[in-house]
Amino acid sequence: MDDSKVVGGKVKKPGKRGRKPAKIDLKAKLERSRQSARECRARKKLRYQYLEELVSSRERAICALREELEMYKQWCMVMDQGKIPSEIKALLTGEEQGKTQQNSTKLTKAGKTEANSSNPWM
C-alpha cells in the first residue's frame, strides 16, 4: 500500500518537503550574507561620520553664539556704567555714514536726471 494522502485533491507524499539546497547554494547564500553585512557596516560607518560632522558643526555654532552672548553681556555692563562701548559707536557711525552715502548717491542721480531732462541733446 502507498503512504500518500489525498489532501484537497492533491496527492501528498510524506517525508521530503520542497527541495534541499545543494552545497553550492549554501555557499552562495553565505557569500551574499557576508556581502550584505559588509554593505551594512559601510552604510553604518557613513551614517556615523555624517552625524559626527553634524554634531561638531553644531558645537562650533554654539561656541560662536556663546562668544557673541558674552560680548553683548560686556556691552550691557559698560552701558550700565553710563558709557557707550566703542564697538557700538563704530556701528552707529558706520550706519550714519552709510545713510549719508546713500542720500548723496540719490541726490547725484536725481541731479543727473534733471540735467538730462533740461538738456534735450543729452
TrEMBL record:
Compartments where located: Nucleus
GO molecular function term, any single one: DNA-binding transcription factor activity
Gene3D superfamilies recorded: 1.20.5.170
One Gene Ontology term from the biological process aspect of the record: cell differentiation
UniProt KW keywords: Activator, Differentiation, DNA-binding, Nucleus, Transcription, Transcription regulation
A single Gene Ontology CC term: nucleus
Location of region: Disordered: 1-24, 94-122
Name of the coding gene: CREBL2
Protein name (Swiss-Prot/TrEMBL): cAMP-responsive element-binding protein-like 2
Biased composition annotated in UniProt, kind: Basic residues: 10-21
Chief location bin: nucleus
Superkingdom as given in the UniProt entry: Eukaryota
A Pfam entry, by short name: bZIP_2
Family designation: Belongs to the bZIP family. ATF subfamily.
Span of domain BZIP: 26-75
